[in-house]
Amino acid sequence: MRAILRWTALIVAAVLFLLPFYLLLRNGLASRAEITAPQWTLFPSTVHWENFSRLFSLADVPFARSLLNSAIVAVLQTTGLLVVCSLAGYGLARIPYRHSGIVFYAVLATLMIPTSVTFVPSFVVVSSLGWLSDFRGLVIPGLFSAFSVFLFRQYFLDFPRELEEAGRMDGLTRWGVFWRIVVPNSKGFFAAVAVITVIGSWNAFLWPLIIAQSPDSWTVQVALSGLLTAQNPQLNLLFLAAAVSILPIVLLFAFLQRYLVRGVTESGLTG
């Protein structure tokens, strides 16, 4: 009986989880008339595979370019954030100095500031630098994350000091110990933070909407909003675009989800 109940619960959970994906694909491959029809059908009467070509050939919404832009922004932002935040977290965890505690609590205090509050001054700075509709404006303001610094600090506090001391005895500087000993032995945790950052960067909407003013610089989320606010919204293409846009994140999560669990456990957040 326990096995039956367990499998029933798992099947129900799986159906509820897959239902949004089914709706995206079903409506994306259907015609507009079938989406708005009063009678619901489980599958469209005719599968319109040509919707893929229509989606990627839209003149007012460059969807293929937006996918490429999102990928570039996610890769650059994730790489830069890992470098900046890992160095900051390692410094707060391992380099003793007088005001390290004050600096750490000041970094944590920024987590209580709503992101929307910083949009106006950030936009003024980016606009004055001439970074509108530019990758620099999309990437550079997101290279620092107080939450990532906190995660790295918590992880490095538990990193074995013996490995670092062995490196110092071999003549490595603190910089060399970090890059040649700490980083190679922390690949799993770096991967966990990378997954979180990629997902957040790919799903970002408000900041790219403000900065990416040219259609050639749109990210995928801005392109989706362009499909939604068009004068003649094509619902089937909107559903199909949503399905295509979440596919990279679903695949990334499916293959790297173990690093997310590992990152939570190794950062000390379970306590």
From TrEMBL:
**Bilayer-spanning residue ranges:** 67-90, 102-126, 138-156, 189-210, 237-256
User: Is this entry keyworded Chaperone?
Assistant: no
The record, for Pfam families, names:
BPD_transp_1
| CDD domains named in the record | TM_PBP2 (cd06261)
Its protein name is Carbohydrate ABC transporter permease
Q: Where in the cell is it found?
A: Cell membrane
Q: How does it sit in the membrane?
A: Multi-pass membrane protein
Identify its protein family: Belongs to the binding-protein-dependent transport system permease family.
User: Which key words tag this protein in UniProt?
Assistant: Cell membrane, Membrane, Transmembrane, Transmembrane helix, Transport
- Annotated source species: Amycolatopsis melonis
Domain of life (superkingdom): Bacteria
Q: Where does this protein chiefly localize?
A: membrane
Boundaries of each ABC transmembrane type-1 domain copy?
Answer: 67-257
Q: Which PANTHER family match?
A: ABC TRANSPORTER PERMEASE PROTEIN MG189-RELATED (PTHR43744:SF12), ABC TRANSPORTER PERMEASE PROTEIN MG189-RELATED-RELATED (PTHR43744)
